[in-house]
Amino acid sequence: MRKAMRDARLRLGLSQEDLAQMVGTTPEAIGLYESGERLPPPREAAILALTLRVPVYELFREYAPLFTATVGLRASQEADPGER
């Protein structure tokens, strides 16, 4: 989320303060999202994506390997529950 969100914000010529006002959050929250210290709640992530004119998955692209690994692990556990 860090780089994608910052790049999209800068491409639109927005400051963290501008984006925060448009989304209905604080500049501090935007800073935390861009630094990777915190992820926005799902509803706010959707609003951020709409405001920044990017697909929501683009904001979370860097987390895809973690998500894929987690989902793959769960799927393999559910496929053969007898081997736990």
Q: DSSP strand (E) fraction?
A: under 5%
The CATH topology is: 434 Repressor (Amino-terminal Domain)
Give the averaged pLDDT, no decimals: 85
What is the string of SSEs from the N terminus onward?
A: HHHHHH
Ends: how far apart? 35 Å
CATH class membership = Mainly Alpha
* Major sheet details: none
Q: Which structural class is indicated by helix and strand composition?
A: mainly alpha
CATH architecture: Orthogonal Bundle
Any idea what the CATH superfamily is called? lambda repressor-like DNA-binding domains
The total of beta strands comes to 0
Please give the count of helices.
6
Classify the helix fraction into a percent range. 55-70%
Task: Estimate the global geometry from the Cα principal axes.
Answer: globular
| C-alpha Rg (nearest Å) | 16 Å
Low-confidence sequence ranges: none
When the domains are counted, the total is 1
What does this structure look like?
InterPro entries: Cro/C1-type_HTH, Lambda_DNA-bd_dom_sf. This is HTH cro/C1-type domain-containing protein. It holds the Pfam family HTH_3. It comes from Caldinitratiruptor microaerophilus. By secondary structure, the protein is mainly α. The protein has one domain (2-79): lambda repressor-like DNA-binding domains (434 Repressor (Amino-terminal Domain)), CATH 1.10.260. Helix content is 69%, strand content 0%. The protein has 6 helices and no strands. The protein has helices spanning 2-11, 16-23, 27-35, 42-52, 56-59, 64-79.
